[in-house]
Every structure is written in C-alpha cells, then in structure tokens.
Amino acid sequence: MTSEREQARTLVCVPIMVEDVEGALRRAGEAADAGADLVEFRVDGLLGGSSGGGAGEGDVVAGLVSRCRLPCVVTCRSASEGGLYDGDDAERVAMYERVTAGVREGEHAPRYIDVEHAAYARSANLRQKVNLGVEHPGQVRGVSTGLVLSFHDFKERPADLSRRVLAMSSEPACAVVKVAYRARSLRDNLEAFEAVRGAIKPTIALAMGEFGLMSRVLAPKFGGFLTFASLAGGEETAPGQPSIGELLGQYRFRAIGRRTAVYGVIGWPVGHSMSPLVHNAGFGAVGFDGVYLPLPVASGGDAEGAYASFKASVLELVHDEHLDFRGASVTIPHKENLVRLARERGWALDAVSAGIGAGNTLSVERDGAGRFVSARVFNTDAPAVAACVLEAAGRSDLAGVTAAVIGAGGVGRAAAYALADAGARVVVFNRDLERAAQVASEVSRGLGGGRVVVAEPMGRLAETDAGVFVNGTPVGMSGGPDPGGCVIPAVVLEAGGNRRAAPIVLDTVYNPVRTPLLAAAGRAGWRTVDGVSMFVRQAEAQFWAWTGVEPPGGLFDRLVRERLALKG
What is the pLDDT of residues 29-62, one digit of tens each? Predict the structure, then answer.
C-alpha cells in the first residue's frame, strides 16, 4: 500500500476541488511541479448529492485518477463534516466502488479513498464495499487503494479526541487515521502532536484556522503521515492551510525532523510579520536545524485577559518536552506581558527589558531530554533604534540633542531608553498623557544616573525643536488604523528643513517602506531612516542570540525589501 520511501517522511498533499476533469488535471500537474507528493481530488462538488448516478460520476473520477501524474486521494466530503456532498451514502458508495474497481484497461486505482468515520460506522453498505477484511489488511477490496478514516470538527477540538483516534485505528479496514479540528489557541496544536505520537497506525492530525499552522508545518517533527498545502493562496480547502510554496520554501518543510528546534513570533495579529521569512532563510543559510513560525496569542479583550492568554500559551510551549521550543520574538501587544511573566517565573532579564518593562525576545535553554532548564528575556529594539539613529547622525552619542519619541507602547519605551542612554534629552509624546508619563517615569528609573525622560501631550509636538524624531505608533502602516497618516505636523516638518542641521526621523513602521511620514520628511529635507533598517538590526540580534551565528550580511534586509516591493 505505501512504499518505504513514503513511510520514511511526511508527505505533502495538495487538495484540489474538482469542477471539471481537465482543470483538475492541470492543477494536479502544477502541484507535481511545485513538489507535492500526492494530490487529493475533492469530488464532493462533482457528485452534488441530488442527481444520483454515482456510478456515472465514478467513470469520470476513475478517468481523472488514471490520468493523474501523482498518486492521489479521492474524497467525497459530506456536508456534515465541511464538504459539499449532501446526498445519501449509496451514491458515494457507487462512486468509490467504481473508482477502486479498475475495470477498464489502463486504469489505475487511487492510492487512498477518504471516508468519514461517522459514515463508515453507520452504513453497513459502505463498510461492505470498502471493508478490507482480514485477507487484505490496509487495502480496499484487495486492490492497492488504502482507506483513510477521518473526522472533522470546524468548531473546536473534541474533548474525546483520543477516543476518536483509537476508534478509527481499531477498524481493521483503516489504513490511515485523519483528525482535523479548529484550534482555539496554540495549545490545541499540542493535542494534535500527542495524537500522532501515540498512534498505532499512520495518522494525520491537523489543527485548522489561524492558530493551527504549527500542526501543519511541524507534522514531520512528530511523524505525521502527511500534511495538506494549497496550490496557491486563496485555494485552501480548510482554514489555515499554507500554500505549498510557503510550506516547502519559507518553512523549509523538507528539512524539518524530530530534532528541529522551534521558534516563532508571538503577538496579535502576526500574519503580517516578516520574521518567519527572514529567520527561516537565516536558519537555512547557516545550516541551523530550526524552524520559525507565526504564533498568534489573542489579546484577550483587556490587559488582564491578554496577560492570561499570553501566560497560558507561553508556559505550555516552554514546558512541553516534545516540542523543543527554544525561543520567540514577541511583538504587540505582549512585550510588557513578557517581562511580567519573566518576573513572576524568575527568568533572567537584560538591563533594557528590566529598565523599561518591555522585552521583545525570549530564549529558552533545554537539556538533552528536552526538559526546560531556564529562560532569559531581552530587548533588541532599543539597541537597534540607537544604532540606526547614531549611524544617520554620524555620531557616537547624542549628547546635547533633544529626541522626540511618539508613542508609549513597547517600541516607544525601547526608543526612549535607547536615545536617553545615548545621551539625548528625551520627550515622550502620546495622546494619553497619563500613559506617556508612566512610561517616562519607568524609563527614567530604569536608566538611573540622574537621566530623566519627560512626557508631553501629543498636541505639544508642534512646538518641539527636537533634532531626532522616532515614530513608535502604527500610524502610516499598511492595513493599520491610519495608513495615510503622518504623526509629525506639517509645521514641524517645514521648520525643520530650515535648520542648520536637518533633523533625523526614524519610522518604526516598515510596511510600506516609504511611509507617509518618511515621504513628507524627505520632501522637507530631513534625514530619514526607514523601519526596515530597524527591523533588520533587531532581527539580526535575535538570530545571533538563538544560534550563536551571525546571519549572512545583507540577507535579512534584501529579503524584507524584496517582499515589500512585491506587496507594494
């Protein structure tokens, strides 16, 4: 039924919704060219469920299977489990019987047929037609087709997941077990991994939705039989499927093994992050056995809810002895939550994270058995801000310079600390003055040595004569709350252009590269630093901390700019 080569690695299957034979064959050919091991022909829309004549459609499907370049799975998914077929079992049985019979000269049977376990259990006719019996275990009716028994839940992870897997595994006819359910958090992925690790038959266990990408990408780490990937974005047959290009390219799926270390970016949302692009490329370039994933952790609705969600998710990842979770980038809204958790757990904090109460990097040490040993939290945003500004200024310090930091979030805190530590007089501007004052006070305490950061309301920004400006807000970000906005008033930009030394503006927003702020500042004659420069510096520092190796020079910068150019 399954070759030794296939058993040795997790397969990649591209699902194709069949509307017509020629179109499906063309898509199957594209899947083969993209590197797929097999395709799944979803024929539930072809049968429809109301016209009858399953044997007739069976001729069509049999011809499709016979002409396909790749081994294939034939699936007629019922509406009750997320498919399009709403007819009775008799039509599906007729189609499956025809497809697996192989009565026409030159035809070959599908590698697998996929039948919902619920349908298999209730239909004696279905069991009779596809039952393997003891004479041909793992095959349908004695031919080379294997039976996949499956279960799908598009609402949540079932409480009796283990029982369901065992029930399917216990069926003599079952060659492969498949369970797919919607993940409600990152923790639901760990249940999928447990299902695969404890399986007595080849098993596919996938978590659907934005929280479930980990289960799809890490299937090889836990011995999953296969994973699904769409041929292209927008062609997913289940929520959360990556494209085959992303899976094999960005996530280096073929390089993932049982010892691969897991990293990621924790935030909400994280789908826009460039971090998976650069860190996975970096791992590949230096030969480091790691994979880097988006790790969405919901904000929870309020500050305490966000912290509770963050804490529960991170501790599950850190203390799972099989995952080999080694570290993460942490972004909005969890940078302060990271420091709070570190203080609760007694993890090490670097001076910047401790001083500003916000970190953006977690590094986890484990022993040879995968057990948690220790963790440390640090902040690479602050040194990245300082390096970018000092380079633009052509100076080794900012003594005598006034710096305006706009925004009082995690990156604003880091910028205030970095610029004050470099000798600047720092003013934090924010719409919420109380929030700005809190940040200024905490950063001042963290710096010590009599260095003081002050706060001003956003309205006073028009009056400042600062020589350095840092935008730490999402204003100007593509897809953000104010994508066309410019946080620095025109009167300030115009006045700055008349100074003897042009002011410097660093926009921490990096999508688009040339934000409205940078465009306006450039027209006014200011010196500008884009967010890509800062992002790359902080990412390179994270990469070194995790791997002990510098990423190839210019790699991260080139990848980000190329990707943003394609988007723009």
Answer: 999 999 999 999 999 988 864 444 445 788 899 9
pLDDT in tens, 95-144: 888 888 754 445 678 999 999 999 999 988 888 877 643 344 444 444 57
How far, in Å, are 119, 353, 357, 400, 454 from residue 445 at the CA level?
Answer: 65, 12, 11, 21, 12
Looking at the domain assignment, is residue 295 inside a domain?
A: yes
Report pTM: 0.93
Per residue in 512-521, pLDDT tens?
999 999 999 9
Asked whether residue 446 is domain-assigned, the answer is yes
Q: Which domain holds residue 228?
A: 4-146+212-258
Which residues partner with 140 through β-bridges? none
Q: Which of 129, 155, 335, 567 is catalytic?
A: 335
User: Is 335 noted as a catalytic residue in this protein?
Assistant: yes
CA atoms of 208 and 155, how far apart (whole Å):
9
Average pLDDT, the chain: 91
Please provide the distance, in angstroms rounded to a whole number, between the alpha carbons at the two ends of the chain: 47
- Fill in the DSSP letter of residue 230: B
Residues 6+ apart with CB under 8 A from 404: 426, 427, 429, 461, 464, 466, 468, 469, 470
Total residue length of the chain: 568
> Domain holding 101: CATH number?
3.20.20.70
